[in-house]
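tool_call predict_complex ligand=S-adenosylmethionine
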Amino acid sequence: MKEPMTTDNSPCAHGSVWNSHAAQWARLGPPLRPSSEDISAYEDVVGRWAAAHGPPRIALLGVTPEIVEMHMPQDAHLVAFDINQAMLDVFPPALLRPGSEAIRADWRRLPIDGGSRDIVLGDGCFAMMGFPEGFRILARELRRVLAENGVCAFRFYLRPETAESIEALVADLRAGRIGSFHTFKFRAAMALQESAEKGIAVSRVFEWWSHSGIEPEELTAQYGWQPETIATINAYRERSDVYNFPTLGELRDALRELFVETDCRFPGYELGERCPLIELRPGGRAERRR
Ligand SMILES: C[S@@+](CC[C@H](N)C(=O)[O-])C[C@H]1O[C@@H](n2cnc3c(N)ncnc32)[C@H](O)[C@@H]1O
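tool_result ok
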């Protein structure tokens, strides 16, 4: 099969951090993976739409297994899109949800008709798009495929309004104020990012980690963090993937042209204040100008 083209910092089929993540999914945890609280929030969005309109046509960006197998109304149809063959091979949606489909495609050019989806769901997708232009390109594509009465629900990864320094993060680590290695890794990526526009290359996070003087054995002895969990950071070595973490304000500025925000929920887990699930409906400035 011809590989979908990528034009910026999103992963191509080879050399992406997602090849490694596909192989070690069970060792990843929130905030990278959605929690049961996040899943209830996605279910609520789908349930409310279905109660008003009937069985929805759902597009999922990515193959997040927790979303594929979540509760959906009977007769809902799900099609998942991902650019990475390893993720499609390891998590074929039809295995978890018989009748669902998976298509290898770039989210910015979805191979489906305009207005053909009632609901679009995704978990952490925007972080890999480039900011702000990539966010706007994805928003335009979502707006294109979404029906007029449709709804999107995405969990975003956002940095705090006041950026945290890497020194403050290490101090928190040393003081036992961090609950999991996943949280630590995420905060490190956000702290090392100079600006949402520049983003942060995951290889840079690995580089910092390998020179930080923090010994994995120390973390295991002090906090009981499993060596295999700590080793998930090795997936960042020499990878070209770049994450972009805007603030909530920067995100809203990028999306308000095409969408109105109809809900914003912050989950209760550690770092949940940086991972809101936001519901978006067609509207916004461009719509009002029509
Ligand atoms: C959904 S996202 C974020 C991780 C998420 N929290 C999860 O649960 O999977 C991860 C997926 O995005 C895919 N991806 C990244 N950029 C893409 C793009 N431009 N088009 C299609 N898939 C993309 C990667 O291949 C990976 O499988």
